[in-house]
Design a protein that fits this description.
Elements (H helix, E strand, L loop, with lengths): L16 H4 L5 H9 L6 E2 L11 H12 L12 H15 L8 E4 L2 H12 L5 E6 L3 H9 L3 E6 L11 H6 L5 E7 L11 H14 L2 E5 L15 H4 L6 E6 L12 E4 L5 H11 L5 H13 L1 H23 L4 E2 L8 E6 L5 H12 L1 E2 L1 E2 L10 E5 L4 H11 L5
Parallel strand pairs: 1-11, 3-4, 3-5, 5-6, 6-7
Antiparallel strand pairs: 2-8, 7-8, 9-10, 10-13, 12-13
The structure holds pyridoxal-5'-phosphate (PLP).
The site of pyridoxal-5'-phosphate has 13 residues, from helix 5.
């Protein structure tokens, strides 16, 4: 590394450059100022205020009582891989098998493992912003370069210019990352656009990494369009999913990857060297979530729809605010005319009212002038938060 004696205190310079270059999370910077303080209404993270339903918690407790405390297979336990294959086949009319499915400890872990499999130093990844910064950070950690195409805000929803996405792909590009439904914008890619991305990727031999963790948080249909519906079995498509959002399981850290079986052994190897395996009792709870969780999803998504409609109506009355219509996911990502420092406004609102939100610049330069508010919270609290927030946006 350098010629210092090994017992010298390590300096930041001793850490790999791509890691030193990672930005700190602006979402965390705001939340650190207020998390856990009395009276704070936290709308900064991407999670609901509902705790995981009891029947799922009971499944984990039962598994522990039965002694499920040991290492598990790398790719996950068979019952969960089988349940997930059947679940996706029900939703998408696909013919997936357990061999397509690998269990991970969260969607975040799934993204990292997918990226480890396909990008490294000198490679290039193309994606779109505004976006949850953690997604492309994985490629950067691995030494790859990232180009983000700006999406365009429009009152009817954010738009993505596919030609710009394709033009950004060069000889070093290995993958295109698409997050749909998207955090923070609520944008959703339709099947026609998915087919165009797939055709382009096939032509160029590129991978598609599709982050579909908000697949069920969608308001005009039961499930968002998936790349799984348009891809053939051996297309270079890796789909990321998670239990966090649909089953209110953010703290459990459980997710899954759907990928061509031909790279299954590669993904298994990466699981071994990252986490060895996801915990058994958590996976047992996952089986119960998949088998018995449909009513829970229907109820909670109906609640999020009401919250979405409330936020759209209330923010719609403020002349300085422009909220591109969130078709899916559970965020209002709105611009505030005349505001140039989202972080400062979020801090001020937090300090003066206790309402916690995330500054738009956390999601890329195109997010400057925007604020993200997660509306997956009880209507009474949301109403109270909006009442406190509105004076700052008039
Ligand atoms: C777009 C997107 N992908 C992945 C994740 C990761 O979810 P988890 O790691 O909780 O499964 C999140 C979480 O906010 C997200 O917004």
């Amino acid at each position: 590394m350098n010629d210092k004696p090994f017992h010298d205190t390590p300096a930041i310079e001793d850490v790999r450059q791509p890691i030193r270059d990672l930005p700190v999370s602006l979402i965390r910077e705001v939340s650190d100022l207020g998390i856990g303080k009395p009276g704070v209404i936290p709308l900064w993270f991407g999670e609901s205020d509902i705790t995981t339903p009891e029947f799922i918690c009971d499944a984990a407790k039962n598994a522990l009582d039965e002694g499920d405390t040991f290492y598990q297979p790398n790719a996950g336990i068979d019952p969960l891989r089988e349940s997930l294959a059947a679940y996706m086949n029900r939703l998408y009319g696909t013919a997936l098998t357990p061999a397509h499915v690998t269990i991970t400890v969260s969607g975040m872990n799934a993204v990292m493992i997918a990226m480890q499999a396909i990008v490294g130093a000198g490679d290039h990844l193309v994606s779109a912003e505004p976006s949850w910064p953690n997604l492309t950070a994985t490629a950067r950690i691995l030494g790859a370069e990232v180009t983000n195409i700006d999406q365009t805000p429009h009152p009817e929803g954010w738009q993505l210019d596919l030609d710009r996405l394709f033009d950004a792909c060069g000889p070093k590009t290995r993958a295109i990352l698409i997050n749909s439904p998207a955090n923070p914008s609520g944008w959703m890619m339709e099947p026609e656009a998915q087919r165009a991305v797939l055709d382009f990727a096939r032509e160029r031999g590129l991978w598609i990494v599709a982050d579909e963790v908000y697949a069920r948080v969608v308001y005009d249909r039961p499930v968002a369009p998936s790349f799984l519906e348009v891809a053939e079995d051996e297309d270079r498509v890796i789909v990321i999913n998670s239990f966090s959002k649909s089953w209110a399981m953010t703290g459990w850290r459980l997710g899954w990857i759907t990928a061509p079986p031909s790279i299954g052994t590669i993904i298994e190897k990466l699981i071994e060297f990252n986490i060895a395996c996801p915990p058994g009792f958590i996976q047992q709870a996952g089986v119960t979530a998949i088998e018995d969780g449909e009513d829970f999803i229907k109820e909670t998504v109906a609640g999020y729809r009401d919250s979405r409609d409330l936020v759209v109506a209330r923010l719609g009355q403020l002349s300085r605010v422009m909220l591109p219509y969130p078709r899916a996911a559970f965020y209002a990502f709105f611009s505030v005319d005349g505001m140039d420092d989202g972080f400062a406004l979020c801090r001020q609102v937090l300090e003066e009212t206790g309402v916690g939100m995330a500054p738009g610049e956390a999601f890329g330069d195109v997010g400057k002038g925007f604020i993200r508010l997660c509306f997956a919270t009880r209507p009474r609290l949301l109403d109270e938060a909006l009442g406190k927030l509105e004076p700052y946006l008039r």
